[in-house]
Amino acid sequence: MTYVAPDLEALENAFEMAVRAPSIHNTQPWIWRPTTAGIELFADTRRQLSVTDSTRRSLLVSCGATLHHLRVALSASGWASTVEYFPDRSAPDHLATVRTVRQHPSESRIDQAAAIPLRRTDRRHYVPQSIPVGHMRSLATQVGSFGAVIRQVPAPMLPLLAAPMLRAAGLHETDPGYQGEIMAWSGRNRITDGVPSRNVPTAPLAGNVPVRSFADPALEEPADRPDGAQWLVLGTPHDDRRAQLRAGEAVSALLLTATHLGLATSVQTEALGIAETRQEIRSGLLHDCAYPQAMIRVGWRPENSTPLSATPRRPVAEMLAA
Ligand SMILES: Cc1cc2nc3c(=O)[nH]c(=O)nc-3n(C[C@H](O)[C@H](O)[C@H](O)COP(=O)(O)O)c2cc1C
Question: What CATH number is associated with residue 166?
């Protein structure tokens, strides 16, 4: 495909949307570089969480999410794209090059693009209301196009998720390196990145599966509401860097589709940062057939629930390479 660079307006809009992607602790660990050969994506390893994410797996998943956000936004402006993954063997942090061509957007791309500014990580409780099979099928189709699968965890199997999550939380509680990263990247002290207090509920979820704790929670939430979320495990058949990056695209596609369908979502990955607890999830819930890349709570918020405010982002100029 010959590379036809998108017009400036489409490109600027795509970068504005790409920075809205979810990322581990809202680290935004990516660098974008528009060149005459394509739009290049690099890992910003200076923003790696070296204890929480020592293997950089979550960093790559986060970069996959921004890659998907960028492509969705371009597509909605009439620019379809192809991706060359890891185009330069001598530059391992060069994750992808995106090349565009003029093409009318599909309806689903327009829906996903419209969901970008609306999507939030919603850590509050969800109501106990089932999700239509058709919705689940749409989510599965989305992740399938990136070589990933989702497993919906039925209620009787939730202890197989809860046990490793609880173990990981226990190990992290006494790990000063992990706690240092929580203090540095959440609470009231970050302006353009990190997980703000206002997005973290004051009361822990009254569900069976524990979720990651952050500093200084300030989002008022009643303590006794049972959590009706469905838990999904997103997995990939391989666990190399390409599979992890594409898993991030799959996560993004799932979250944007869910948002479009009116569902609330929250990615939860604490147990995947420790090899043993990740393996427990792989064998307990994915039968050793796929590698877990993210757990996602999905469900419905109560009617008339207050919308969450957006988490902050760095200005686009800061994520563009000089
Ligand atoms: C790879 C990855 C891992 C994440 N892990 C967690 C997690 O364990 N717990 C959590 O509450 N949020 C998690 N998140 C959500 C981020 O904290 C969230 O995307 C970020 O704070 C930005 O907020 P937003 O999603 O509302 O835009 C994760 C996101 C990604 C992409």
Answer: 3.40.109.10
Q: Which two tokens stand for residue 294?
A: 């993210």
Residue whose CA lies nearest to ligand 1 atom number 3: 24
The per-residue pLDDT for range 116-148, each reduced to its tens digit, is: 999 999 999 999 999 999 999 999 999 999 999
Q: What is the pTM of this model?
A: 0.98
**Does 257 lie in the same domain as 144?**
yes
Upper half-sphere CA count for residue 186 (Cβ side, 13 Å) = 22
The finding on whether 270 has its CB within 6 A of some atom of ligand 1 is yes
Together in a domain, 139 and 105:
no
Residue 226 within a domain: yes
Does the Cβ of 120 fall within 6 Å of ligand 1? yes
- 307 falls within a domain: no
Tell me the mean pLDDT in the region 283-300: 98
Question: Is the alpha carbon torsion for 223, 163, 298, 135 positive or negative?
Answer: negative
Confidence of residue 63 (pLDDT cuts 50, 70, 90): very high
Q: Give the range of the structural domain holding residue 163, as residue numbers without chain letter.
A: 133-299
Cα 201 to middle of ligand 1, angstroms: 14
Residue 28 structure tokens: 């935004």
- Ligand 1 in reach of 142 Cβ (< 6 A): no
Residue 272 lies in a domain: yes
* 3-state DSSP of 120-145: CECCCCCECCCCCHHHHHHHHHHHHC
Q: Which amino acid is at 314?
A: R
Of 252, 244, 217, 312, the closest CA to residue 115 belongs to 252
Q: Give the type of residue at 116.
A: I
Check if the beta carbon of residue 126 is closer than 8 Å to that of residue 297.
yes
